[in-house]
Amino acid sequence: MRRKICVVVTARPSYSRVKTALRAIMDNPDLELQLVVAASALLDRYGTAVNYIERDGFPIAARVYMVLEGENPASMAKTTGLGMLELATVFDNLKPDIVVTVADRFETLATAVAASYMNIPVAHIQGGEVTGSIDEKVRHAVTKLADIHLVATEEAARRVTMMGEEARKVYVTGCPSIDLAADLGNDPYLDFNPFERYGGVGELHALTNGYVVVMQHPVTTEHEKARQHVLETLEAIHRIDMPTLWFWPNVDAGSDGTSNGIRSYREKHKPRNIHFFKNMEPSDFLRLLYSSKCLVGNSSVGIRECSFLGVPVVNIGTRQAGRERGENVIDVGYWAAEIEDAIRQHLGNGRYPRLPLYGNGDAGKRISEVLATAPLEIEKRLTY
Question: How many whole angstroms separate alpha carbon 317 and alpha carbon 300?
Fold first, then answer.
């Protein structure tokens, strides 16, 4: 019998981080995909990632509405609790052989807890990495709940075993998001008009002379400063006065502050060089990144995909603290002058050499092979 693999996708970045694995699971004759789409991946204000999932031809086994309004620490905790309740029902109905959860978002913890208490083996993608914020706690908590560890780098594998996990259960697969970057091949350049395809809000610009991309999320342990943080970035981008494509933040504590800062700055200063988008199909987003002069913000895409693509990155603040990174990344604080200086430095640097730090482009296939053959065990034994 084919193994039933239940993959839970809870947000737009989670989809790009697992898309090629979903395809490989579907193509594997020994596996049956059970795709669960949940949380902000279902919501219009965060880009309705579910539309792209359906457009890519993935059948959805269940949808879980679990996001509580508020974008604060209390709503994150309650959303996690609601997710545990709803996902337990979904798992009871689907009866999967393995539940797959991705990375370090709070919904990931709900997935791992629900599956663990139901005696379903948990496979965790992107364990063993070091980040800032609450993500650090969530990622390592999920590692201790997981039974199969699908890590992106050798260093991540080392950290997982340092936490007492059995080495035979740790598989270095690379990161599936790198697969999408590798799929761009020898023609990764922008081949569509983002304004025509995705709409958005703001001035329309000719992009042929260069542009900047911004993706900045709130830092949950600094959520009360989210508005001020984004205002500093807006000021730096306004001073640069280069066409800028800015993407809306994730559903985290502080995202209301980030959104409010963006809206108030637009109303007060009316920057003509910034256009705002909610979301974009993963491969389109990567083409947009590749043709840009620089990515600014604190998204992990700047650490992962941009290292593979050689895109210059200005990484702001603590959200990605501790991640393995390439020479394409300049780390800065939250002040506008510091951000502006780093952007101008990158504008003179140009593209960086490709660095396959997080994989070579075959992670999805490797993950499907592990899921088809790994022992189905739920007992944990601490090892050192």
Answer: 12
